[in-house]
Amino acid sequence: MLRDAMLVAGKDLRIEIRSRVGLNQVGPFAVAVLLLFGLALGPDRQVLAPASAGLFWVAVLLSTILAVQRSYAIESADAARDGLRLSGLDPAGIFLGKAGAIAVQLLVLEAALTIGVALLYGAHLSGALVLVAACAAGTLGLTAIGTLYGVVASGLQTRETLLPLLFLPVVAPVLLAATKAWDAALAGTPGRAGGWLDVLVVFAVLYTAIGTIAFGPLLEDG
Amino acid sequence: MSTASHPARTDRATLALRGLGAVALAGVAATVWLGLFVTPPDEFMGNLVRLLYVHPPMAWVAFLAYGMAGLASVFYLWPRTRAERFDRLAGASAEVGVVFTGLTLVSGSIWGRPTWGAWWVWDPLLTTTALLFVLYLGYLALRRVPGDFHARARRSAIAALVAFVDVPIVYFSVDWWRSLHQAPTINLITHKTYVHGSMAWTLLLGFVSFTLVYIWLVAHRYRLAKLQDREETEGLEVALAERRAEAVAG
User: How many domains does chain A have?
Assistant: First the structure.
């Protein structure tokens, strides 16, 4: 299963490196979102800095939708999805591989966005360990749900509108917990983030488990 | 096309359903009459207490409906109990649940404005209810996407399960978030007054009659879903047969 996951993740990441859609579209999209938040809240750093954790995670959430859509768009061309079904790879491995590839892209994006909130909103980066842990656990939860709903929506006619509607309400706890963990770290009290990190880990584990089990039948249905 | 495979049985079911509907609606009417005209105003809340005869029953029905949808989805996903009826039951129940969640949010908001001075507070129960509303709107949107019956049923059941698992996590995290902020916690329980006499009976009648309304609506929605599925599968065959008969005759 893990070997299959590595194969699929490697394939997706190679496609992304060669096509540069993530770099040329998802990244700039996230930066545009950051800039627009700045315009919406005004130039006052005393307003922006305390809000930077929440704004960062909303930008990540929106980018996740794009990354998931992109991940399934590459399977829709040339009947690649049927190829995936015929390949004999373990469906659980395919799920973990696709989720892993999206997670890697999101983590790169989050690194860039972190610099963005520090520069644009004047967020004081402290508690680096908590920031990284929240990103890791939060991203796993987001990609598990995203990859699961991505395959649900990918075969359907209304996939572009359906995916955000299905995805966003479910990941509300991730937004809340990740924002609170970041708030604690940015405020210089990383010790308070502990419980929120637990929420993120529980969410990630639960939905990765559901996704690993449910992905196979969903891939066959598409 | 034959009208029904078991005419006698169908008729009995229809009659029973009509009876249930009549009792349910009479119960709701009685609740409204008792709540508005018979029961006294509350010592602290005044006439606002009258909204409490319908609001908790609505919320109860919403949660009951989601519980039923989740349970039916698990039954559908479990290979040993997989049956089309569980998919239809999940869909029917979730649809009624969304309607009652909407009613719960609106009636709660109307009650909250004079009581708390705001249409909305970020209370864990309220926030969870609002998220449930959008979660299950998404579920219903997914159900409406046309396609093969079993593929649709399976993805819907998985979505229902994902939503079901999400509810306690949402409630827990919002609850915790509120307690950390040290904002005035609005505990819905503390606002409950001692209900007694006619007030208690009216509230009890509200719960019973709204539950009956739930069963009645789900039964109707279930039947409609069954007919829709039949129309989809048999309708084309019937149309083709008629067309062929026409061609032969013509």
Answer: 1
